[in-house]
Design goal:
By secondary structure, the protein is an alpha+beta fold. The protein is built from 8 helices and 6 strands.
Length: about 280
C-alpha cells in the first residue's frame, strides 16, 4: 500500500511521513473476490484489515439462526481490531461482498506500531465506541422483535383460543351479536311462539344463560391478560440483558481509554526527558 493510499484512511491521516512509511512496510496486501468469507465468528483474531477498495459485510447469527448484518465497511475503513486488542476469538463473521483489495496488519506489528504512535489508539477507540453504539441499537431492535416471536412460539391451542374469545368479547361485534340474540330470544318467547314459548316472561332461562356466559368469559379474559403480563416481563428481562451488556462494554471502553491515556503520558514524559538530555 502506498503512503498516499494509507492517508486516505481517516484513522491514519494525521501520521507524519516517517510513521506512515513505517506502517506501509508492515502491511500485507491481499485481493479477494466477491463472496469470499474472510473469517468466521470464533476464528483466532491475529490481524486487522484496512480496505483500500471494495466492500466487506460484518454479520452474526441471531437466536433464530438468521444472519444479522452489523455493518458494511467500504474504501478507507478498517475492521478486525477488537480481536487483536483483547486476544479473543473473532466476535462476528466477515464476508467480501464486492471485489476487495485489503491491507493486513498482524497483531505483533500492530502492537509495536501502536506503542510508538499511541495517538492512533484514541482514533481507533472513537471508532470502536461508535460501532458499539450502533450494534447495541441494532440488538435492541432485534430483541423487541424476538419477544413477539418467542411469545408466539410458546402459545398452545388453548391459549390462542382464549385470545380469540377475549378479543371478540371486547369488540363491537360482540355487543351487536348480544343485542340481536336478546331481541330474538324475547321475540320468540313473547310473540312468535305465544303460549308455547320455552322461556316465558321474566325469562329465567335467559338470565341463567347470561350468567354462564359472564362466568366463563371473565376467566378467559384474565388468562389473556396474564399472558400479556408474562410478555412484558420477558421484554423487561431482555432489555435488562442489553443494558447490562452496554454497561460492561462501556466499562471496558473506559478502562482502555485510561490505559491509552497512561501510555500517552508516559511517552510525553520520555520525550521530555530526551529533550532535557539534549
Amino acid at each position: 500500500m502506498k503512503v498516499e493510499t494509507l492517508r486516505s484512511v481517516p484513522l491514519f491521516r494525521a501520521l507524519d511521513d516517517n510513521a506512515a512509511f513505517d506502517l506501509c512496510n508492515l502491511l500485507t496486501v491481499r485481493e479477494e473476490p466477491s463472496g469470499t468469507p474472510l473469517f468466521y465468528r470464533g476464528d483466532p483474531g491475529d490481524a486487522m484489515y484496512l480496505i483500500e477498495t471494495g466492500r466487506v459485510r460484518i454479520s452474526v447469527k441471531d437466536a433464530d439462526g438468521h444472519d444479522a448484518t452489523l455493518a458494511e465497511f467500504r474504501d478507507g475503513e478498517f475492521f478486525g481490531e477488537m480481536a487483536i486488542l483483547d486476544e479473543q476469538p473473532r466476535s462476528a463473521d466477515a464476508t467480501i461482498v464486492a471485489d476487495t483489495r485489503l491491507a493486513v496488519l498482524s497483531r505483533d506489528d500492530f502492537r509495536a506500531f501502536l506503542h510508538k504512535n499511541p495517538d492512533i489508539a484514541l482514533g481507533m477507540l472513537t471508532a470502536m465506541t461508535y460501532r458499539l453504539r450502533r450494534t447495541d441499537e441494532l440488538l435492541r431492535h432485534r430483541v423487541s422483535r424476538n419477544v413477539n416471536e418467542e411469545e408466539a412460539a410458546r402459545l398452545t391451542l388453548a391459549d390462542r383460543a382464549a385470545d380469540v374469545i377475549a378479543e371478540f368479547g371486547g369488540s363491537w361485534k360482540f355487543i351487536g351479536f348480544s343485542v340481536g340474540f336478546f331481541l330474538l330470544w324475547v321475540a320468540l318467547n313473547t310473540w312468535l311462539l305465544h303460549d308455547t314459548g320455552f322461556d316465558p316472561f321474566p325469562y329465567v332461562l335467559l338470565n341463567l344463560v347470561l350468567g354462564m356466559i359472564v362466568g366463563l368469559q371473565a376467566p378467559i379474559i384474565i388468562m389473556s391478560q396474564n399472558r400479556q403480563g408474562q410478555k412484558d416481563r420477558l421484554r423487561a428481562d431482555l432489555d435488562y440483558r442489553v443494558n447490562l451488556k452496554n454497561e460492561l462494554l462501556l466499562s471496558e471502553v473506559l478502562q482502555r481509554l485510561q490505559e491509552i491515556e497512561t501510555a500517552v503520558h508516559s511517552k510525553e514524559a520520555e520525550d521530555a526527558q530526551l529533550i532535557q538530555k539534549d
